[in-house]
Amino acid sequence: MFIDIHLHTRRAKGFPREWDNATYASPDELIEIFDQVGIEKAVVLPAASPECCHVPQSMETLLETLEEYDRFIPFCNCDPRFLKNSPDAPLADFLRFYKEKGCKGVGEVTANMYFDDPMVENLFAACQETKLPLTFHIGPQVGGCYGLVDDPGLPRLEKALQKFPELVFLGHSQPFWAEIGKLEKPEDRNGYPKGTVTEGRVPELMRKYPNLHGDLSAGSGHNAVSRDEEFGMRFLEEFQERLYFGTDMTSPGGAASQAPLASYLLRLREEAKISQECFENIARGNARRLLEL
Q1: What is the CATH number of the domain that holds 105?
Q2: Which of 86-100, 212-226, 239-253 has the lowest mean pLDDT?
Q3: Which domain holds residue 155?
Q4: Does 17 have pLDDT greater than 70?
Q5: What is the total count of domains within the chain?
Q6: Theoretical Cys-Cys bridge with 170: which of 35, 54, 62, 215, CB 3.0 to 4.6 Å?
Q7: Pairwise CA distance, residues 131 & 118, whole Å
Q8: Cβ partners under 8 Å of residue 244, min gap 6
Q9: Helices 91-100 and 118-130 sit at what angle, rounded to 10 degrees?
């Protein structure tokens, strides 16, 4: 029923995360959750940047692991500092190599650098050249976090959308989805704002730039479309051709806690609060078209 646009996996349990003492789920653990939720296939986003993982994940290890299964779709993760730590690094050559090995996109980009850093723009140019969509995580500041950095109002993202019009950007994370509504105070972008939504920058940017798409994974995506159900229904319907179901599963926990968006979308469909077409587009149709599955 669903294609998951965003999750992570590792075969072996590595050094646990400091904030929850957990590790990524193995492919077998994920498949158990898939069968509970109704997930047909899922995009795996490897970890490449040191800001977001204790040990970077090699593409070779990931691809060898996924060869054993038919339910995973690999993305290639390319840190903007790869190859030469320079804005003229030949990143398109790197991406073409892994595209030929079956990678369908790039990300999750978590380097803690500004959106308009020349090395980041070099990565965007390489993705546009190789026709690979890019999933980004936004961080609130440089230092002490991970993710590409933008300011309240997302001006640097808008600059990228203008500069790379043929690149599909998949927006993700709290500082992105918090701006589905107007921010009452700047620090609200770092969490999960509650209550009624007064339309903010994300809908405005999505209307203006057809290359901006929405990755609805994690608590940030689910919160964005459920905190104000009336607004969420309208948003899902309006942008139904550029929104994607996702979970961002990061541990072997239960299906209910890892995939609340699935039950939410199913309920909206059952109660006729979104159309069948809208549900099918977000649940799997858009992913099939974007990734040419």
Answers
A1: 3.20.20.140
A2: 239-253
A3: 2-290
A4: no
A5: 1
A6: 215
A7: 20
A8: 3, 5, 6, 170, 213, 214, 215, 216, 217, 282, 286, 287, 290
A9: 40
